[in-house]
Amino acid sequence: MITFRKRFMETMTSKINELIENGIADSYTYQEYKKLVSDLLAEGKSTGNEQSEALTNYSMLNDRRMKRLDKTIKIDETIKNAFATTNGNITWVVLTEGWCGDAAQSLPVINKLAELNDGIDLKIVSRDKHDELMSNFLTNGGKAIPKLIAYDSHNKKVIDTWGPRPSIATQMVNDYKAQHGSLDPQFKEDLQVWYNKDKGTNIAEDLSKLVQ
Fold first, then answer.
1. CA angle, corner 103, sides to 91 and 76, nearest 5?
2. Strands 120-126 and 147-152, how do they pair?
3. Dist CA 12 CA 102 (whole Å)
4. pLDDT category, 138, cuts 50, 70, 90?
5. For a Cys-Cys bond, which of 49, 80, 101, 190 suits 128, CB 3.0-4.6 Å?
6. How many Cα neighbours within 13 Å face the side chain of 25?
7. Which residues of 6-24 are buried (b: 16+ CB within 10 A; e: fewer)?
């Protein structure tokens, strides 16, 4: 006899899978996403429901940052080999928006890793357009982005998630909040300095665990 709990879990899984697949159907490739961000900036806009001068300025900064990282990010050979030898039919669904600084640091690395294996399909989804999907993948109760969902397209199953920050940056944030209560502009600046020095290494290391 199928228990109520089991039936409930199956229903929830089915609903989440439906939300993921709706997101995939309304997604962008990495190149399409970058073009979307650039086209909106030409109109003085950012992606997402909320529009403001600050968000547009963040998007402009992130647009330049992603273009630079696309040219400069290098993936370690060990991690390259891990991705190249992985079998599977996996979709990486990344919920994000153009104004997000953490996303601008992460997406170029995520894209380079996905390009290493034909079995990984990267799909970028607007957080604001797919609020219900985002609400099923919260971080500490918040809609933090970027959020990567590793989805087995064949077996209709969520394998793992990652985000919104790499593990070292997450620890930095947690430690700072424990000491100061919240993140201030100085910490956010220090975090960007860390990203620049790390050069995507920690992100690549984290994501390599998703394909083991």
1. 70
2. unpaired
3. 30
4. very high
5. 49
6. 7
7. eeeeeeeeeebeebbbebb
Structure tokens at 138: 């919260």
Provide the b/e sequence for 54-64 (b: ≥16 CB within 10 Å).
Answer: ebbebbbebbe
Token look-up 């397209």 returns: 153
Those residues whose C-beta lies under 8 Å from the C-beta of residue 195, and which sit 6 or more positions away, are: 105, 169
**Whole-Å CA distances, 54 to 18, 24, 44, 50, 97:** 34, 29, 11, 11, 14
pLDDT in tens, 88-122: 789 999 999 999 999 999 999 999 999 999 999 99
First to last CA, the chain: 35
Question: Whole-number mean pLDDT of the chain?
Answer: 93
User: What does the block give as tokens for 79?
Assistant: 């991690």
Element (H, E) at 148: strand 147-152
pTM: 0.92
- Largest Cα–Cα distance of the chain, in whole Å? 59
Q: How confident is the model at residue 1 (pLDDT cuts 50, 70, 90)?
A: very low
